Amino acid sequence: MWALTALPESYRGGEEDIIQSVTACRGAGTLKKEIFASLACKKAIKDGSPIDPLAACELIQAALALENPRCPHGRPLWFEVSREELFRKVGRII
Q1: Which of 43, 46, 24, 48 lies closest to 34, judged by CA?
Q2: What CA–CA distances, in Å, run from 16 to 8, 20, 23?
Q3: What per-residue confidence (pLDDT) applies to 94?
Q4: pLDDT higher than threshold 70 for residue 88
Q5: Mean pLDDT calculated for residue range 63-81
Q6: Alpha helices (H) in the chain, listed in sequence order
Q7: Less CB within 10 Å around the terminal CB: N or C of the chain?
Q8: What's the topology of domain 48-94?
Q9: Residue 74: half-sphere exposure toward Cβ, Cα within 13 Å
């Protein structure tokens, strides 16, 4: 049996996410990873959200320095596209 006794202030209202993580849990290590991944995603800057240019630059530099550039859920932060593939996608002739 689990008892949720405390949450970080910034995660208030996220109790349902934690309950879902616990019920879908496949082990203690997995549970911890899933909860932290969910917390990170909830607090991430979303598409279209305003951001200070200096903060944006710092985030870009930090992302470029990552050894494994993926979000906490495993999705890549970026991917490489060849010039030929880019031109094909936008209808340019090579």
Answers
A1: 24
A2: 14, 6, 11
A3: 65
A4: yes
A5: 89
A6: 15-23, 28-43, 53-64, 83-89
A7: N
A8: formyl-coa transferase, domain 3 (3.30.1540)
A9: 2
**20 token code pair:** 């879902």
Higher-scoring residue by pLDDT: 15, 46? 46
pLDDT tens digits for range 22-61 = 777 766 677 777 777 877 877 788 888 999 999 999 999 9
Q: What is the DSSP letter of 11?
A: G
Amino acid at 88: R
Q: Phi and psi (nearest 5°) for 76?
A: -65, 145
- Give the domain ranges of the chain: 11-43, 48-94
Distance (Å, whole) CA 20 – CA 17: 5
Tokens 């903060």, residue located:
55
Q: What phi, psi does 70 have (nearest 5°)?
A: -135, 155
pLDDT at 21: 73
